[in-house]
Amino acid sequence: MKRFYFLLLILISANTFAQKTALRAEVAKKAARIEQKVIAWRRDFHEHPELGNEEVRTSEIITKHLQSLGMIVTAGVAKTGVVGILHGGKPGPVVALRADMDGLPVTERVKLPFASKVKTTYNGQETGIMHACGHDSHMAILMGVAEVLASMKKDIPGTIKFIFQPAEEGVQSGELSGAELMVKEGVLKNPTVEVIFGLHINSQTPVGNISYRPGGIMAAVNDMKITVMGRQAHGAYPWSSIDPVVISAQIINNLQTIVSRNLNVTENAGVVTIGSIQGGIRSNIIPEKVEMLGTVRNLSKEDEAMFIDRIKTIVTKTAEAGGATAELKIPFSYHYPVTYNDPALTAKMLPSLKATAGADHVRLKPAVTGGEDFSFYQEKIPGLFIFLGGMPKGQDPMKAPSHHTPDFFIDESGFVLGVNALSNLALDYMAMKK
Ligand SMILES: [Zn+2]
Ligand SMILES: [Zn+2]
């Protein structure tokens, strides 16, 4: 009897395997067929970039496309975001796929026929606007995924929510990031999303490759403001001062011991940076006050809590030791949680990525100390965020221009793998739930 069940199990899993392979082959065929369309969408977005929460034209194009595929579409989510819902022909879980939409205040220097010539004033400065992080690629890829999956609707066991999210790159102080606002407005509800997938193109990873990391893949970000209050005095008579400059120097040095002495560096990286220090007006006056701005990066919730706790102690106690007082605001204006790839979900989806890209082209990557607001979705539900190769083959990654720079360049031949990867992640996840 045991043997019978064992054989049955083998038959069922062989059948699911065959179904998955057949669906992946269909996705690959359809993705190849629309590759040129995906590239054309990307070039159009690239030529007409818009800053965070101003993605009006971008939003219209996406809305029309999703509507043309017969989806239920809601525009104006979290200001300029668009959400499309595709109900498959069979019952099953709700899976979300996400692309971000915003460009950056960067003046493009790349010689492309579709290079951006858009100009604006940002923080009082004249600047160009450029898709210098590759979010144009993300939108075009997700529009491609929408087209592929909409054409396979009757075979899909579940629902797919296509989330086009504005303002990933950070917003003005006091505003919420695109993802945070979308979550607040209920993007993960009605219907309730079970799991979310997203990707980021990378200008320093060769085309044809996918990289991933279970756990923290991108950092939690907290900015901070430290104000040290002392007593002003003549620079010639420091004994009558409480010198906030010397105390600030001690604080900066003591803060560096968190990474070197409190963090288990064999597990995760962490960063404390003071990027701005302001105090005093001339050489012979000890000022009353010094203000510092800094950024703190962590790859786990536990590390983040430990860092904040240590920063509070070091700032207040170092000031106290020097007879001064200090005020700490953390986060000051900006907080992104850690972009945390649920380890169980990552392990479960790894075969899907390997079947799509080829096992040799799926690589484990070191964590990134930059932040990503995909983390706000992952705070609520399990999610997987991967990196997609966008660097021309044969180029030296060290010489490839990085994201957020005027020379940032993406090789479009990498898009089709993105369309396949996201489509298969959704379909394979659903197949596993059956
Ligand atoms: Zn960016
Ligand atoms: Zn980005």
What is shown here, in short?
Keywords: Carboxypeptidase, Hydrolase, Manganese, Metal-binding, Protease, Signal. With 434 residues, the protein is an alpha+beta fold. The chain has 10 helices and 19 strands.
Rounded to an integer in angstroms, the radius of gyration calculated over CA atoms is 25 Å
CATH class of the largest domain: Alpha Beta
Oligomer description:
single chain
Number of DSSP strand runs: 19
- The level of helicity is 25-40%
Task: State the fourth-level CATH superfamily of the largest domain.
Answer: Zn peptidases
CATH topology of the largest domain: Aminopeptidase
Q: In terms of per-residue confidence, which ranges show pLDDT below 50 for 5 or more consecutive residues?
A: none
CATH architecture grouping of the largest domain: 3-Layer(aba) Sandwich
Helix and strand succession?
A: HHHEEEEEHEHEEEEEHEEEHEEEHEHEH
Shape: elongated
Question: Number of folding domains?
Answer: 2
**Ligand types:** zinc ion
Sheet/helix structural class: alpha+beta
Q: In whole angstroms, how far apart are the ends?
A: 25 Å
Mean pLDDT: 95
Largest sheet, in brief, is: 8 strands, mixed
Bin the strand percentage: 25-35%
Counting DSSP H or I runs of 4 or more residues, the number of helices is 10
Strand order of the largest sheet: 1-2-6-3-7-19-8-18
Organism: Pedobacter westerhofensis
Domain Peptidase M20 dimerisation: 224-320
Binding site for Mn(2+): 133, 135, 169, 200, 404
Cofactor: Mn(2+)
